[in-house]
What does this fold into?
Amino acid sequence: MILIILRMDGVIMKIGVLMGGISSEREVSLNTGKEIVKNLDKMKYDILPIEVNKKEDVIEKVKGIDFAFIALHGKFGEDGIVQSVLETLNIPYSGCNSFSSGICMNKAISKSILKGIHVNTAKWLILKDVNELELDLIDELGYPVVVKPNSGGSSVATTIVYDKRGIRDAVIEASKCDKEVMIEKYIEGEEITCCMIDGKLLPIIKIKPKSHFFDYSSKYDEGGADEIIVELDSPLKEVVESVAIKCWKGLKCSVYARVDMIVSKGVPYVLEVNTLPGMTQTSLFPKSAASYGLNFPKLLDKIIDLSLDRNNY
It folds into this structure.
């Protein structure tokens, strides 16, 4: 039996899939959007692909839709701004609300909150200008360090630096993508990702990149990394689940999110919380959901239902 999603007036719900955007992750967003359009049930929804090329596009192109499925990444996607626009227009949308999105997009803010609720995260410092660079402070963190935009994703402009000779160039590169640059202590260990829906943990995925770390190519190139569903041994399994739930609650997440961690010597360290995980063919979230028993169309249905329930639409 096919359940058709109807509005109050009996018309099939019109869903606009927002993709593209203005960030450095535009191509990833387009791929995510195309996959969502491809996998949304055409028997249940009236689907409208919406390519965003500038901020003004959102106000103009969402007219007449009943629900916005956000497939945008990076700035004006994950930072709470487009969510605020949709809230102002009274259009329900997928994923976390504007407040949670803004918090999680800013790595320094989210890490400060996580530290306050006793979640392990690597030590860090923030620069607003390359001229603020103080090598003594980085020495205190200890090499190697990871240099990246404070409000960025997909490992764009992210560099592992092994000594002070490479710091300045790495900061300059990261500053091309953001006004603030994070320098973070590199934690060596196994990377895992915890996909969560409605506050519940889906099967955990262990990531083994083919390159030296899980960079842009590893994430989006076919075969760039081995991504394996794993059943962690106790007590690590329970600790990881507890940490993921702490992140969800502490950062006020809703609907769905992905918590990325490094496990070093049996201790999980949170890297970041992603409020709009990628939904491409190679993305982690659909893979985890499929292992749980949610195929791509059912996963999208679940996200839509939870998003509508969040605001009682």
In short: The chain is about 35% helix and 25% strand. The CA atoms of residues 32 and 278 lie 6 Å apart. The domain at 1-94 is CATH 3.40.50.20 (Rossmann fold).
